[in-house]
Amino acid sequence: MKRLIFALVAVCFMLPTNAQALDYDYFGNMQYHNDVLRFDFSVLGSGERVFFSSSWDDGGFDPMLGLWNSDGSLIEFQDDGGATGTQLSNGVGYDYGGYDSFYAVNLDVGSYFLTLTAYDNFNISDSYLDGFQRDGDTPLLIADWDQPANGSVTNEYAFHILNVDRASGPIPAPEPSTMLLLGVGLLGLIGFGRKKMKA
């Protein structure tokens, strides 16, 4: 019986499955005012994707989000979304404020990346390879920096990539809920097997 269960589990892992778009939430600290954090992601089906930050509303620095295709050409850039509200990501509502970035873009199948920078570290051009406005500056700790137009702020960021197939970045994304369910199911099978062996 035990071999049968393991064989069934192994077969389930080998079966092809349809990709399901996921939401990725990133939280962390940006150390310097001229840092550029990069987050890569892929899209396996065409459709609308949502990108937004939710850190300014909580006292973090004024974030800017750039969306780039795989060859480093700018698709979308936003400093301030200008809107306030709440957006769901992974079943949690995140508030965003006027200085947070928020946009929705239709993307085709492919690989893309987002850049997160602090205001006013704008991209120099529509090419990622050209760099950013503050690249040559002596790095200043955000915690010690008087951010233009915002004053003293914390170095914390929170931003979200919605409806993509895979994403990676400097801070690991939380495991999708499907992996959690799979883990709970496997623990249940192990517990069931141990109970049966004792009987």
Automatic annotation (TrEMBL):
<protein>
    <recommendedName>
        <fullName>Ice-binding protein C-terminal domain-containing protein</fullName>
    </recommendedName>
</protein>
<feature type="transmembrane region" description="Helical">
    <location>
        <begin position="176"/>
        <end position="193"/>
    </location>
</feature>
<feature type="signal peptide">
    <location>
        <begin position="1"/>
        <end position="21"/>
    </location>
</feature>
<keyword id="KW-0732">Signal</keyword>
<keyword id="KW-0472">Membrane</keyword>
<dbReference type="Pfam" id="PF07589">
    <property type="entry name" value="PEP-CTERM"/>
</dbReference>
<feature type="domain" description="Ice-binding protein C-terminal">
    <location>
        <begin position="172"/>
        <end position="195"/>
    </location>
</feature>
<dbReference type="InterPro" id="IPR013424">
    <property type="entry name" value="Ice-binding_C"/>
</dbReference>
<keyword id="KW-0812">Transmembrane</keyword>
<keyword id="KW-1133">Transmembrane helix</keyword>
